[in-house]
């Protein structure tokens, strides 16, 4: 009996130790942006606070703009971006960013700029870009295949959002004077259907970001202060845009169908608690210079208190990028220190809502 107690105690200590290690991994996130010093920008934090470090090197990261990132877990993430060597950039890490490995080849990845990436889990992900390109992997990036090939040739897709392995939305800029493009699949990409053609006016010619909260609730944002939402899986899209001018809404992060943050030009931060019926403009830190050339681009949140926003700094400041962080729901935003002078496009944290 005494021996059984000792064995049980050892097992309990081991389990507690494992739980402690898990709890102490901190807030892990990545942000991405323009090329600097000869290679695209990928920065990482392990504490979510003011400690960001650059990852990759000129040997492993092409000299391109890294446009989007998705954090799958503390070890795995994808980033995508511009074309190099005749095909678009897709990089993947399985060790927290210690090494980044380029995926695909010139034979199976189109020669376009990939603007968006989203993962359903560690194996299944999508990436989208110019010329109507939609790529999918079901084996953690060992192979990428093109979906909806030739169906939306004039669409410049900006972002993609997968809420599960079946339901995925992508948005972008429509050709000529057509409304912005929204496409959806409910079967993992076997078929894609265009949505919103009867809801979005021609003035909304481009959508820049999309987030699928669940198979029914999806938010999409874009040019001219436009914010749209569906609660029926995209059968109808409702205008949730606040009054405003020509500013672009570049990023959206929704906790659910009620609470969301939006990243806007000129360092504006919009917040809603009532499904977009009303929007409040939260104040940027005093250290962040506001100008017509500045913009917040990407936003992610852990919960209704904790969020990060990245973007483009006022050029006159001598800085290119900016990261701000809140832990009180946006009552106060604090600027964080960057390890590289680069424009920042998107941000993603492990266990965040996107």
Question: Can you tell me about this structure?
Answer:
This protein has about 350 residues and is mainly beta. It has one domain: YVTN repeat-like/Quinoprotein amine dehydrogenase (Methylamine Dehydrogenase, Chain H), CATH 2.130.10.10. About 5% of the residues lie in helices and about 40% in strands. The protein contains 1 helix and 28 strands. Strands 3-2-1-28 form a 4-stranded antiparallel beta sheet, with no helix packed on it. Strands 4-5-6-7 form a 4-stranded antiparallel beta sheet, with no helix packed on it. Strands 8-9-10-11 form a 4-stranded antiparallel beta sheet, with no helix packed on it. A hairpin with a 7-residue loop joins strand 14 and strand 15. The radius of gyration is 20 Å and the shape is globular.
Structure summary:
By secondary structure, this protein is mainly beta.
How much of the sequence lies in strands comes to 35-45%
Poorly predicted runs are 1-24
From N to C, what is the helix and strand string? HEEEEEEEEEEEEEEEEEEEEEEEEEEEE
Radius of gyration: 20 Å
Structural class: mainly beta
Oligomer: single chain
- Secondary structure: number of strands: 28
Strand order within the widest beta sheet: 3-2-1-28
User: Based on CA inertia axes, which overall geometry fits?
Assistant: globular
How many H/I helical runs? 1
Query: What about the largest sheet?
Result: 4 strands, antiparallel
Q: Please, what is the average pLDDT?
A: 92
Percent helix range: under 10%
What is the CATH topology classification name?
Methylamine Dehydrogenase, Chain H
Q: Distance between the terminal alpha carbons, to the nearest Å?
A: 50 Å
Supply the number of structural domains.
1
